[in-house]
Design goal:
Layout (H helix, E strand, L loop, with lengths): L22 E8 L2 E9 L4 E8 L2 E8 L6 E5 L3 E8 L2 E8 L2 E8 L4 E2 L3 H4 L1 H5 L4 E8 L4 E17 L2 E12 L9 E6 L4 E7 L7 E6 L4
Parallel strand pairs: 9-10
Antiparallel strand pairs: 1-2, 1-15, 2-3, 3-4, 4-5, 5-6, 6-7, 7-8, 10-11, 11-12, 12-13, 13-14, 14-15
Amino acid sequence: MKYVAIMFSLVLFFSSQIISNNNMLFIETSEGNAVTLNWQVTNLKTKQIQYTLNNRPEKITMIGKGASDSWSKESKTENITLTRKGNIVLAEGIRDGKKIDKEIKISDLDWMASPGFYLKDFIISKEQKKYIWLINTDSLKASKMVVTKVDEYERAFNEKQEKVIVVEMKPVGLKGLLWKASYHFISDGTYIYYKGLKGPPGTPEFVIKRMQAQ
C-alpha cells in the first residue's frame, strides 16, 4: 500500500510573541529541533510563511481566500509553483537543478495547501465534517482528506479563557487507519496547534504551536 506523505515541515506547519493579527509566530518542533515560523497574511488572499532551515532562509507563499489557488516555495535549492486550473493543479519550476512540469488531477473539492490557514470558515460553521485535497509538495501527489470536528475544551490563550475546537484530519479509506493529524483552533477560527507525522507511518512526529503574546 502506498502511504500518504503529507508535507508539513511548513506548516511548515508553523519565538516569543505575536506581533499582530496579520503577523503570527509559530514554533515547529521535531526530534528535538525547533524552527520558528513567521506566518504573515498580507491581504485577504495572500499568505506567507518565512523561516530558516539549516541556516538557509526559505519562503512559502499561498494565494487564495477560502482555499488555495496557488502555492509557491523559494529556497536555495528550489523555486516551484503549484497553480490550480479547474480540477488540475499545475506544478512548475526547478528543484535540485531539475525541471518540474507536472499536472496533478483533483476534483472540485477545495485544495488546501496548509489547512491551518484555510479551515476558519469550517471551524465557525455548524458543519462537522469536510472533504479537501492536500498535495504533497515533495512527491507532487494529491490525497483526498476528511476533516472532522472531534472534541472541544477550554484553555487560557493570551490571558483570556477560550473554547478550543479539535479537528482530526486523515486520508479517506483504509489509509485513514494508519495516518492522522490533529489541529486545534480557538472557536473564532484562530489556528493555535498542530500535531502529526512528517510523512508515512514510522516517520518523525512534529508539533506546531502558535506563541502567545508576552
